Here is the input.
Amino acid sequence: MSNNIKLGIIGGGKDSLIGILHRVASGMHSKYEVVGGVFNTEIQKSLQYAEETGIPSERVYKDLDSLIAGELSLPDEEKMQAICVLTPNYLHFSMAKKLVDNKFHVICEKPLTTTYEEAQILEESVRRSRIVFAVTYTYTGYPMVRQMREMILRGDIGKVQKVDVQYYQGWINPIIHDPEKRAKTWRLDPEISGKSCCIGDIGSHAYNMIEYTTNLEVKEILADLNYLYGDNEMDVDGTVLLRFSEYVKGVIRSSQIATGEENNFRVSIYGEKAGLKWEQENPNYLYLLQDGEPLKTLKPGHAYNGELSLSGTKLPPGHPEGIFDSMGNIYHGVAKAINKEGYDPAEFPTIKDGLRGMNFIEKVLESNKQGNVWVKL
Amino acid sequence: MSNNIKLGIIGGGKDSLIGILHRVASGMHSKYEVVGGVFNTEIQKSLQYAEETGIPSERVYKDLDSLIAGELSLPDEEKMQAICVLTPNYLHFSMAKKLVDNKFHVICEKPLTTTYEEAQILEESVRRSRIVFAVTYTYTGYPMVRQMREMILRGDIGKVQKVDVQYYQGWINPIIHDPEKRAKTWRLDPEISGKSCCIGDIGSHAYNMIEYTTNLEVKEILADLNYLYGDNEMDVDGTVLLRFSEYVKGVIRSSQIATGEENNFRVSIYGEKAGLKWEQENPNYLYLLQDGEPLKTLKPGHAYNGELSLSGTKLPPGHPEGIFDSMGNIYHGVAKAINKEGYDPAEFPTIKDGLRGMNFIEKVLESNKQGNVWVKL
Amino acid sequence: MSNNIKLGIIGGGKDSLIGILHRVASGMHSKYEVVGGVFNTEIQKSLQYAEETGIPSERVYKDLDSLIAGELSLPDEEKMQAICVLTPNYLHFSMAKKLVDNKFHVICEKPLTTTYEEAQILEESVRRSRIVFAVTYTYTGYPMVRQMREMILRGDIGKVQKVDVQYYQGWINPIIHDPEKRAKTWRLDPEISGKSCCIGDIGSHAYNMIEYTTNLEVKEILADLNYLYGDNEMDVDGTVLLRFSEYVKGVIRSSQIATGEENNFRVSIYGEKAGLKWEQENPNYLYLLQDGEPLKTLKPGHAYNGELSLSGTKLPPGHPEGIFDSMGNIYHGVAKAINKEGYDPAEFPTIKDGLRGMNFIEKVLESNKQGNVWVKL
Amino acid sequence: MSNNIKLGIIGGGKDSLIGILHRVASGMHSKYEVVGGVFNTEIQKSLQYAEETGIPSERVYKDLDSLIAGELSLPDEEKMQAICVLTPNYLHFSMAKKLVDNKFHVICEKPLTTTYEEAQILEESVRRSRIVFAVTYTYTGYPMVRQMREMILRGDIGKVQKVDVQYYQGWINPIIHDPEKRAKTWRLDPEISGKSCCIGDIGSHAYNMIEYTTNLEVKEILADLNYLYGDNEMDVDGTVLLRFSEYVKGVIRSSQIATGEENNFRVSIYGEKAGLKWEQENPNYLYLLQDGEPLKTLKPGHAYNGELSLSGTKLPPGHPEGIFDSMGNIYHGVAKAINKEGYDPAEFPTIKDGLRGMNFIEKVLESNKQGNVWVKL
Here is the structure.
């Protein structure tokens, strides 16, 4: 029997992009073995998925409660150690809580919950249970994002003075103008998706990225959201002004109606000594801008990168890695934490990041509702 | 004697980049002949500049009043028809006004004046004098900016739903943190430069570009400026939320402390059918983004471009033109207006653009001062 | 027991980039399970590698003969079905031949052998054994390379008239000028690496890519190699003129002394109707050039791509996949072949590609040796 | 009267791109004044052109002989000092020779002549006459090309070991396959254009660029040209292997049937210490590649550039200059030579460059005709 971590998966069946992403990523570093789960609300579909993806069928359960009961009945060396939660947003809280309370390690998709209150309750549970809890802000696993963090923390760009993060997609454009398509889109249904679409789904990535790369905390925000139609309940575009301190400011721009954009997530951080820029669609380049110097483009796998970045690169320079590798790095970090091997806390986002994310989403909605005023985080 | 337009220049002597830009640009289409001017406050330096740049010395004057008197005394076919005003901002108003009142055509650098009130008075004079008055928002002369306008106006991207314009520079970074350098920088001195640095100098370009390319009017703004130090009177960074109508929004981001940036001016306009993007530092590419279609990159000089764009391209595709060519196109348009040849009003920005720009600057300052609130334009 | 293909690995232990690439790639589509192998010439190191990578230790063998004996003694449903050969080049032939003769499916790194003669013998064995034999020209698995092939085959660019492929690396530069480093580099040792370094290692990729994307056969070549030093036996740079027919020509340029280049592999194919360009370091863009049309950039995952391309993309547009995904697609194709599921022969390179590659390498060396003359392939 | 150099122009009338390029470029540094010329074989068209471009009509001549006679009859301070020759290639020699023999300075388009023999005769005349003779290889005036030269000459990349230059256009593609269009294209008519189309027109730029940037001399070449049709007399595509010395090699690739390409001229020079790359379509970037270092992108106008580069930049960083500015820099250099001001010989290409270019063209044709063999230059 291998000493891989036994992983269960909740959700993420057949057509789910997030299912593929997690399954492949968990396998990349040979640290996990998917042993079962609940992939679909219908057991037959779950079993079919297991067969297609080479997951043994014995531990495919009909629902979460059965899974918990079944696994708790197994000897320690056999039972699932970690569970990955990929269900629709509104189920994250109740499912994650049960798992945490039953001492499973949890890898949960974002947003953590649908309300900040739930997130606080969950965080309290995690603290009590002392398990490892990761929230998969996927993009922080990219080697050049990690490098950005390392460079900023060691002072390469000096004191941060300006932050600008963009996350532009266009996928809601062909939907929002078509009432039929709109009605069928779960992301635009607050019952399933939570109170926010654009900010909840992608604005929260932008926010997390800023705090991840700079280690700074946003203190206040002022938000202006766009719903595009009076009968649409969910934001599809939003700009958020950020204040870190009196003279350190920033802006997050997120949109799902930026027609034709795919996943155009860009980060620009300017300090007193230099600036750094990174783009998700070309993730293997990190741009260093310095007054009066040639532009420098850093790439993964070079000895000039820091340890955190290098540990997230599997191949030598010139062999482009992508989003599976980024998520794979997060899984790798979680495995180290579960195995109590030494690791850098920056290797994966935790429930704290999830909690702060929920707070950010609620405060953005509040600022917008009150007429675009400053709200403290 | 050639039938070129006789051009005089006020300001723009020796070390002035703006002087070089206007002088070269005015010569590119063989429509103007620089016949004299006042290049410097010291006549000796003006004469030396004239010698170095091949401008005849006979009509180099000691100051504006002498120039006006001297030129008015000449026969019509000899006297300067148009005067280009390149002096520091605070002199624009008084000089332009005298010239307008004496029936010279005027090509004035932006910002038009230092206050909106002055701009209104000047506009009134221009209306009375019926001369041609151009304000040199340089970037609207680029062929691919013109193409952007043509495509939007003919409906290629559908109804505009989101506008995002960035103008990031880093040149103030090495100055603002150094009190000595800061004290010597005229852009940071409100006496010379007007009330605003970043918004006045570059934010106003962003605003003009939006109205130029979309033909839409911004109705309300909410601004957040950054002065970086308590003892600095001039904004060096600012984000401005824009509202065109209830569901059409946008954002302008401008900064002069985006360390390491050169002249990173980018325009993104997203409509219901497509998006368009353009960047000043690579001005010969226009990106067309459509849901589910390959990204299209349009370039100057191709038959697929509109008439306004093509008229601003001198060479076949693959021969990169630059900023002199953009300004040259503006001069070309002004020449057509002076010569009463048919022209597209989009060939050069007028006093209306200058006036709206001054209004924008003042309203941005007002919004910021009042605590980042919405202000109607 | 899962119905995954049982995979064994020969070579590719600890420090081997190629080992990581194959192991991760084989796992990406949940079609294989690594059950054992010979990772190192020392069994202890093999066992340690197995432990670190979660491979069961029971079927870690001391050498290839033991592996073959051991596996053949197992019941059919348990024994290894496919073996992946990642040993140094000079061992490929003898090992692959034994495996083939014992009816294992083989996935072999390139170059297939060290001589064309060996390659012919091996091909004969494969034909007799009727097993699946793949040669891992990694780059043909990229979705946009597959798309290139599909577009060319269906006539999108018309008759091909010009082919230009570059493969530039710089990694030998810091080695070749340093006799000590040079002596320690196995790629520069003909005993281990075969007769050619640059052409064998990367020029052969370029050649394979041309035949893959165009479906054309190179008829004649003229080569000019550079050894840089008189006492260096292995080519480190070479240009090869190609002739497909009297009026269809091309060129391959390959170098390992293109200082500072990483893995700059670029393909340009020009036809009578359009041109196509692709770059390995930014593999998710395919450029379509047409006379008088905007440049079009195609990206993976869009419905406008062909079936072969789409089947190689796991996530929606905007989620960059990389080299593991390319190799993963090749493994996926091989699995379909082993499982006798329908597949497109373009899903993986076979022994035919390996054989042609060896012929190309030998003919390039011959042309160069004879003074840069035309040699028929 | 200004002290500008009085310039005459032969050829380049109305529809000529080269006419626009020279006229605008000559005016950019305020060093020349176009005083007349022969723009067309019909005097009426010449006069009309003069009127449209603001050139005085008095010195518009009906042909070259009249021009020479007319100008020689004028007092020294009035007569044309320099003449720009923009006529079809086959006229360059006879016209330039007359001008040289009459002691006019000459600025001649490339190719210098139609045969090497003519070029030698002309060079002899130039030597006797001691006038300034420039051959306008336009691209060597770009600031980042000059920077490339400065860096290579001062040893920044170490000993050059590999040169690769590409010049790809697609404009002949829609012509060559259409017999009617082909018959009307003067570039494909050897009577007008000389013996070579692709090599003569653009391959010669590539060759000149290599010798300009590296200061190395190509010693031997082996060429493979493509005529695409048996009844086409002019090469439209060609690859040329280069040998500088036994172990320093290179390749020029030029094509006019690279469908969809515009003016894709790229230079890559690799040395023992670093590599440099530049692309004409994005001329304001110079890439410095060093083993194990971040990629560096140099841009014009920065203090890190050398004197030759900086003298060719008129505006601060971030203000893109283009091809007019490159040609303008060449005119500027010629003006310095005419005015006997200190100048760097690298500021403009001379008759030596033109002569070497003609030799290159003839040797390429010879190598190709003899079956792609090595020919000494």
Observations:
- Chain C has a mean pLDDT of 96.
- Chain C has two domains: 5-138, 142-317+351-369.
- The longest helix of chain C spans residues 351-369.
